[in-house]
Amino acid sequence: MFIQLVVSGLLLGCIYSLISMGLSLIWGVMGIVNFAHGAFVMLAMYAAYYGDQLLRIDPLLFTPVAIVLLFLLGVIVYQIIIQYVVDGPYVSRLLATFGLGFFLINMAQFLWSPNFRTIKESMVHGVWKIGTVMIELPKLASSLGSILVAALVFLFIRKTRTGQAIQAISADKMGAALMGINLKRIAAFSFGLGIACAGAAGSLLATFYYIFPDVASLFGLIALVAVALGGFGSVEGAFLGALILGLVETLGGYYVDPNWKYALMFLIYLGIVLVRPQGLLGRGKV
Amino acid sequence: MMELVRHRRFPMFVLGIGLLIALIFPWIVQDRFAQNTAIFVLMYGLMAQAWNIMGGYTGLISVGQVAYFGIGAYTSAFLYTHFGINPWIALLIGGLITAMFGVVAGYPVSKLRGRYFSIATIAMAEVMRISFSNWEYVGAARGIQLPIEKESLLTFQFHSSRLPYYYIILFLFIIVNLVVYFLERSRTGYYFRAIRDNEEAAAGLGINRSFYKLLSIAISAFFTALAGSFLTQFSLYVEPDYVFASSISITVAMVAVLGGIGSLGGPILGALVLIPLSEYTRAWLGKQGQGLDLMLYGALIIIFCILEPKGLMGLWKRISAKKRTNP
Questions:
Q1: What is the number of CB-based contacts under 8 A between chain A and chain B?
Q2: Gyration radius from chain B CA atoms
Q3: Domain-embedded: residue B8
Q4: How much is the pTM?
Q5: Total number of domains constituting chain A
Q6: Residue range of the domain that includes A218
Q7: Which residues in chain A are contacts of B257 at CB distance < 8 A?
């Protein structure tokens, strides 16, 4: 049973890490903690749902479409909101993204009602048995998809010119601007990319997770906690944080009580930052 | 006119007039909805001023104030229904227990800064909501219903009129404002601001930063819990999703930020503007469909953050500064 839970936890953690990666990327480039991140995951889940219902496209195959849609949405949101608050005081940056999340969640309530929805049968279904361990194939497919997208984003940041500009800004904003990097353009692009990560995760989650407006709060908080747990500014840290949360969710859900699993995840986070305030892999001052 | 506006005592003059209006308000406006809105203005004003002690003066930006609010609400409901403790005493005990919770839970969290602190406060509030939703002893997800009693000041229940509730919350609101007024001028208030502006420098000057951070959290938690206990008496029930709703945390922070943080007038001004705006849009759009009013509320928050990031007090300061330079 233990191995079973560890496997499920890691699979879940992979998807969480894709969401967290987007959050971490946005933080690195523009110093904004995107409290609306979960709302974008939720929007992508609905997009995948309607892709399945109206166009009969499987959510797994819909993922590239979700990436493009959410990327564009992210760039638009940057242009009409984020670029105006990015230089403001900390509280107004924080509340602007809170307001955005609030807006999107309630928009979903208004347009699509608070009811739970599920996608009946994804193209990948069934269970794969290895010894005593059962692996649900939809979860496996979503996790592999998340790893693939995360790897592509990682390669993009390391290998391309735009990616190097993103790294340069994260390291030293002023220096990057002096080297002729267009801050506004790269920031808009990074915000789009970060949201696209959330979008990919949402579409992949839609294959097996319930779809409802308030799912946004849960995934948003998980991503925030994963990034804070790993340490802001560290992509590896965000990954590690997300995997830990996935493990705590499945192990805690089984050994403690399924109703308490989220409380347990946040308590573990609070316990860890008590010892390491800068997060597991975070560097420097808090 | 300009002479009057620039006068040193002008803010006190405005506050005096405001207090007078607040005292006679329910006698002039008899409309039940308007009176309820006024009660919520004062309740959120109370919480926003409490938030201001932590966020505005000490620089601990919390987005999980609902943890204190809910614990206060639950404590007084529980003490009343299980032990028959008088609601007024339950209100005070609720405040004190919440302040203690603030210190115990705040001790590790107060070592965090900026975004780490904010995220920890949300996580804490969420832990509380989940805990109370699953805690059988306090009714789990069903919450606690308060029995209906004969109306009197002693039972804290009034059925024929809203006026007593209004004056009770006005009284609590005035107290928190007095506390902030004296805090602003006290040594403790200066320590709070020193910690906000430069924690290392403050520590270097010998200010015990842990102690003063926890003190500001305790005061803030105490008053936020009073608002929670008040709501318990006002609506006669508590429920996890109702008294631990994350939207309360956001509204509290938003009221303070909209008004302008780190000043006495900010949260008052913010509550006067934001709460009627959101209550009346709810009444106006609420019937159109679920969520439309809150959608508008979210959009409003974004617009305020873009247009006036320093809050309405910032706007006021800009105007009065302009007057001074070009008389």
A1: 146
A2: 20
A3: no
A4: 0.89
A5: 1
A6: 2-275
A7: 91-92, 95
